[in-house]
Amino acid sequence: MQSKPSILLIYTGGTIGMMKDFETGALKAFNFKKLLQKIPEIKQLDCVIETISFEKPIDSSNMNPQKWVQIATIIEENYVAFDGFIVLHGSDTMSYSASALSFMLENLNKPVVFTGSQLPIGDLRTDAKENLITAIQIASLQQKGKPVINEVCLYFEYKLYRGNRTTKINAEHFNAFTSPNYPPLAESGVHLNVNNNLLTSKSSKKLVVRKELNDNVAIIKMFPGINESVLSAIFSIPNLKGVVLETYGSGNAPTHDWFLQILKNAIKNGLFIVNVTQCSGGSVNMGQYETSTQLKKIGIISGKDITTEAAITKMMYLLGQNVAPKVFKTIFETPLRGEME
Fold first, then answer.
1. Active site positions, annotated
2. pLDDT band for position 82 (50/70/90)?
3. pTM exceeds 0.90, yes or no
């Protein structure tokens, strides 16, 4: 007889872990040890659930690379014992965390599903119950005793996305996330429909957890009027190793001599600069217009259709692996975890 799938819930913090005191109206931390008492519907799921929590749960605004290592370590230490993992996380930085973990967990063969909520779990109209129940159901999916999902995902408001393809688009609606350049991996309605042709293939290699991340990076969003002194100051930051440059449209930027010279000098000094679009969807295509041809010529890295969240975490990851400068551009422009086309 086949044993039930075992799922580990990892609570890092965020709204989903809060409950309202109905007498005072104040929010207080929810005890996940009493999960089944508060959400009896979970008993209908044919799986075994255990929970673990950060010693001091955090607001997701305080998420950082050290916390990503903490999450990755929990998964590493419990990898053999469980069939899937749910990371309960505040929504504000969830796309960054899901992107980071996708790079850190190499040869992943089990589901790691990030989820959370816009309203606390005890609220009358909360989205927490549905998000949590379906995330557990997705993490429990098996075929011939093996997990159906083998990657880091994000589940929110009836849709399962590849984690490193997501971005948060709304602070008030339940459909807080989107995946602008990649379709949902699964959709939940009357039935749970998995788009198997979109899933990452199972790896035959052993899990490797990469815990070295370099956060000497920056994101610069282009805007009309950005000036030389501001840009020079940013590129002069001591120990700065990489910059994600959010440009216009399909990767366009000013053609001013001073602008190009700053970028050229930075690249000459060993800085890596990745070009991503600040549009909500679409791809960088340097050379399509005159305003991006020069960027291509000086050696700017194309982020193609990657999100800003995935670009900055991929940069931290590659810098942490001490990738040789000669091949950094080639590796960055290559899909590692399905984060770009």
1. 15
2. very high
3. yes
